[in-house]
Amino acid sequence: MTILALFSSALINFYFPALMLGLLALAIVVYIHWFTQQKPQTRAFALLDLLPDTKPMATTQIQLQEKRLFWLRSCLLLLSVLLIAGAFFTNFATTNLNTSRIKLVSMGYLQSANREELSKLVNSSDKNVQSLLLLPNYPEFTDELYEKIISAKSSSDDAKSLLEIVTSSDAHGVIAANDWQGIDNFFEYIHAQENISFIDKHLDVYATRQLAYYLGEQPSIKHYQQLNFHFPKSQSLPASWLSKNSPPQAKVLIIAHVSREQDAMQLQRAMARISASKIADIAVSRALDTEVFPSMPATDKGLLSRSLADLNGVFYLPALTDNNPNIERIVAAMPDNGVVFSESSIQHAINWHAPTTGTVDLPQQSANAAGLLLEPVNVLKYLPATTKTKRADYQGADFTTIWQETVWQHALANRGQQPVLLKRRIEITDSAALYASQQQASQQQAAQEYTSEDNSQEPDFYDQALKRQQENTIKSDHRQVTLWQLNTRFDRQWSDLLEQRQLPHLLYVWLFSNGIEAGFNQNYLLSHALIRQQVRTDQTAQTTEDVTLAKAVAKKQSQQLNDVQQENFRNSQSLLAILFCLVFIAERWLSEWGRPSGSAGKQRYGARSQKEEGVDESS
Amino acid sequence: MSHFLDPQTLAELGDLPLIAKRLATGYLQGEHASVLRGNGIEFNQYRAYEPGDDLAKLDWKLFARSDKYFVRQAERESDIKIHFIVDASASMSMTGPVEKTANSRFATAATQPSKPFQTGLSKHLYAKFLTATLAYLAHQQGDSIALSVCNSEQQRHTGMANTQRHLQRVLIALEQSQCAGHLPLQWHHDSGAIIGANMIIVITDFAQQNNEIIEFIESLVGRHREVVVFQLQSQAESEFDYQGLIRFVDPETGRDKVLNGDQVKQQYLSNRRAYLKQVQTRLLNAGVSFQACFIEQPLDHSLRQFLTNRMKMR
């Protein structure tokens, strides 16, 4: 526990924290000393004065007889471990976080912000304001970096090149999974700086709007009063679907089967959280409603015609085992410009478009792969040249850093694969059933046309296919309803994780759908970590903030020393080395000369003998 | 009571009379006239007459037969007064090892299980056997005996007599004595009670705090009085075969020392040799006979060695 306290307090940092396992060896020594003491046997002995007054030393068994020596040697071992582990004290030197205001800029913000926002960010910096990048070691956002970023953005470089611009370090295992994790790490970092009274400082976080969803969810942010969030306006909500197309009192209805009641409640809670977080100007005054039906409303035409007429959006949650959810009726019941959100599980029942089903065959899929397709995170995955490559071919291969966009485009470009998000703008007739029956053949034809296209097909190929399809439909007597289908079930492994947690995700996509209008922007998607956290929060109502040793070690390993820390490291190591020398000298002195003399009996007898000799001489 | 007198031991010691050194050097040398005549006179040898010899000692009958002058010399064994002083302090309760190994210097003792006191015998019990045997021998040759068993909790004294009944009283006193406490400091004051003894036999282990035993023995030495000291020691004290961590407790004072037996062995043995040398030197300077006995040794062995040495002194 003491070790954990040391780690958690961050008073002492370790350059090689794994070597702290040497403390285990120290514990073994202490254990042997303390628990293997030999109990002395009692013997009657008359000639006690003839026995020397020496301290008994261990010969056959280890004993703890020299306490001072024991403590000195324990200190010696401890100092050795600290020296080897590269311990350094963070509060011995000043850090560079002595300004009154700090701006923390995330990579997502740099990627999403336009030139004006970036220039404003740079121009607002002065001596009292320090702009740090949300990257390991928190480098400063300088003017030179600004120029590089502007030039990169003008040349349409992707996020990977942007990252290479801002940091020259290798990205392997260094960069946080997402902005939120980086923010969280930064809070832990600044709270560890005890010599900084961070309470009085203002912290401006420049992050993507994805981060706004977390506001009010994290205790570390709650406790920090001087925290301001800034989001890029270029992809914000003024042009959102709701603000443009829906009246102020628009309603959202969640139509859920009774078996999906939990999902519906979760979706409703997500709406409440988004409303409470005051994200922009949406959904604050809107009434959110949920209706749970024991059976699907497809059988209750009256209900549909009555309740869906004045809705702006419908979240449709059919039973998972329902093979015929009849979403056509819901779509038909929606007013013009309505939005229906559904899940991909029902796509097989919808005959508007029937792409070939399949899975994205990414090798070595793991839990991180779930977040791969949900957030802008660079992961260490070897992307196969072809999807037919087996996993065994990549064992032992050098993994390269790939980006989600690459995987995204790869998944879309490969035939027979489903994209994460399907977007359909559908023109339907009054009778959805008639529409479905009439368009089934044409959709299949469109799908076949698509599958014969080149792999370099654009991600919005569905729109193109649908546009071609729509050109052939009857132009008169139609209404336009947008149907969003979130496909998170194209892989069984990911589906296990996301199956019950995709609904807030879907809602979030909807709220920020203006970005989706121009093309899918994965920055709006929720992170894998948040999904996991929600699962834990909903089930146990507990937050996991315990700093375990493994986490601390992993975190410390990911840290690299900046200049100040290097200076601290050198000073601390020098101090430890001096202490080590002093303790070593003391140990040597005590072990060689400091022990009590064992000739007390001899001296006693010697005095007596001299006395007797004196008597003899006198006699 | 009677088990103190081992018949085998007594049989082996039957030809070794307890003779006081001073008697041998006094009466038998003809320097002083014997105060007792008659039954106690025993012929020893004839010697050629020399001028100055008492004519009363001429053997006229032998002169008549051989026509030569011979002086009749007689060896007189007078009844002396022997006082036994037995140290009954707590340190005398230390026992020897119950089991002895074949490599031990006392292996012979262990190989004679018929001896009732050769294994697990305490110093005090050994002193009882030794005192009883010597008292019996002294009584057999007509000497008067007395006994003092002393420690800080009890002191037993018997009178000086040479009767059979008195021997029984001495044996009973020995039987009832127990080890406890330490040697009393008033020993010096009680020494007057034993002034009349011609021979004082002190049996102790010399476990003393401030040389009080030596000083007491030195105070006993006087004219016409012989002091014999038996020092009882055990094999554990002489060889110090303790191993590992031992808490040594002084049974007299209760003091203790936690020591490693292997670690302090050499130094202890060195201190012990010096201590014994010092004791012997002081006793010899005071004219005290010193006899060291190991309680692991057979009693007859110690007695035979003691009596043999005394025979050589004649």
Automatic annotation (TrEMBL), chain A:
Region Disordered: start-end pairs: 595-619
UniProt superkingdom: Bacteria
Is Transmembrane set as a keyword in this record? yes
- Which keywords does UniProt give here? Membrane, Transmembrane, Transmembrane helix
* Domain (Aerotolerance regulator N-terminal): residue spans on this chain: 13-86
* Transmembrane region(s): 12-34, 70-93
The protein's name is Aerotolerance regulator N-terminal domain-containing protein
Automatic annotation (TrEMBL), chain B:
Q: Which Pfam families match?
A: DUF58
| Residue span(s) of domain DUF58 | 45-108, 113-270
From the Swiss-Prot or TrEMBL record, give the protein name. DUF58 domain-containing protein
Question: Mind telling me which InterPro entries this protein's record contains?
Answer: DUF58, vWFA_dom_sf
Domain of life (superkingdom): Bacteria
**Species:** Thalassotalea litorea
